Amino acid sequence: MRFPPSFLDDIKARLPVSDVVRRRVKLMKSGREWKGLSPFGSEKTPSFFVNDQKMAWFDFSSGKNGNIFDFVMATEGLSFPETVERLAQDAGLQLPERSPEAERHEQRRAGLHEVLEFAAAYFEAQLRGERGGRARAYLVERGISLDSQKTFRIGYSLGDRHALRDALAAKGASAETMIEAGLLIHGDDIPVPYDRFRDRVMFPITDRGGRIIAFGGRALDKDAQAKYLNSPETTLFHKGAVLYNHHRARKAAHDKGRVISVEGYIDVIAMHAAGFPETVCGMGTALTPEQGALLWGMAAEPILCFDGDKAGRKAAFRAAEMALPLIGPDKTLAFALMPEGQDPDDILKAAGPAAVDEVLRTALPLVDLLWARETEGRPLATPEHRAALERALAEVATGIRDEALRRHYKAAFEQRLKTLFGPTERSFERRQPGPARRGGRGRGGAFQDERVGYLSSPVMASASLTQSPAFRASHAAMPAREALILTLLLAHPTLIADHAEELAGLDFAAKEAGPLRDAMLDLAQDDAPLSSSLRAALGHGGYDATLAKLDRVGPAFGWYSQPDAALSDADAVLRQALTLHRKARALHRELLSAEAALAIDASEANFARMRDIQEQLSALAGTEAAVEGFGASSGRPKPML
After folding, report:
1. Which residue(s) pair with 215 in the sheet?
2. Which of 30, 84, 181, 525 is deepest in the core (most CB within 10 A)?
């Protein structure tokens, strides 16, 4: 029996090679692959490897290799039709009927591929032609190079109602085929079918094998009814089961061990050109289980990029909900939330690939995003509120089908609840007396702290990114307290060893602060160097620019940051600065959570919570280092931190 290639592709897409092989071979994880003992001979050292991304297996002892069909035929002695029947049943697919109608169906599919290929070539020619100037100008404006245009076969559809129809008809394509391919609009009230895509920049959409199955079109007319328009559902194109750039990204994803999902064609093209060829995107709809399977076929932990605004966060939450029943120990998601109003293309233009790398590096694990969804903006002042949170988290964990993973999620949530509901550093005595606040009592009553959820890392883009010149020029300088800590360590290297453990775990906002701290810890491992020799070693290590930045602000810290200051005074200032820094970073995390809650629910309570945290930060910024006995050896005034 002859099976259509599309049917065989569907079986391979639904059945990972490792799942099929595991029935005969005991596999263990080996990097991005699986390995085991060869089923074709006797051996003690594994030489049999399985790669799910490549949809293939390799037996180096016998020299054999192939796909899932080859493996079943080689190990079970089945014929090819018997193998297909077996695997189709495992994949939940019905065998195609062997009939003249089935043959005609396959021929029709081939005809659709052919007419879509003709259309792509036509659109490419129009982009380069006399009437493509406006489209070329748009692509230049978006920073899409000529190489990228050729790689992604970008084209242009003329504004005429019948331009494409007439061009394809001249090649022998029938109107019925063009309609079935989604290229023409037709209907009972439309006497003459006309072109679906008019005056649009055209992006061909391909299947896993690189064959064109649909198009996406970006309108050039700002008053167009739809800014982006995709082909309708057709025999070839099911938008919930397709990823844009999938066929190009597969090898890159395997080589890099990751796949990145963004929200638009332009972002994919920009990321590809900037050195992230493992990037794909959906078709403008919520992530589907089918698309999730495609992503997991390329990497165990796809990184999904979303805008950090309200709509982007909701989209991230929907993706998390979709994935929950499907995840397992070797299959999950991570979430990179962009600075609000920014997409990957914006970040690349503003700050380059390094800034995108920073966003990807700080992507949130799925557990963090789920915790954020359940805790942000939720009142937790009463036992009822807290019980409701516990119940919601228990329901989240119950949605995980994998038993072992479900148990670990429950344990993670329980630990976070203990931390969240634990003792608070804030007390009634440290608050100003006054009218009752939300979540507590007024004068004469016991203050009940209002709690909100926390994250193990910020939901929004990392501070080192959002405070870079690319996003906020006013934050180009290193935060004062971080500069003070580093300046004190440079002036008094003895303090590095005294506070090594605390310094190693310190969370800096300035991107250059952490590497400098790490270098100082390395240089002070054995003996505390002199200040001059420490600076010289750091200079040789490539930290001249950071040292120069510290030197520019150093005089503002006063005498205690100089090498000749009393060590006890410098130590007192450092201890106080470290304490204030830890509190400030915790408050900044709370502020990010509060701002996110306000974006989702602009209630008076959420606004009041945000203002309260802002006031605490303002008060902390002006806190004086009031250490008993400070300055006794020098008679100097107390510093302001």
Report:
1. 204
2. 181
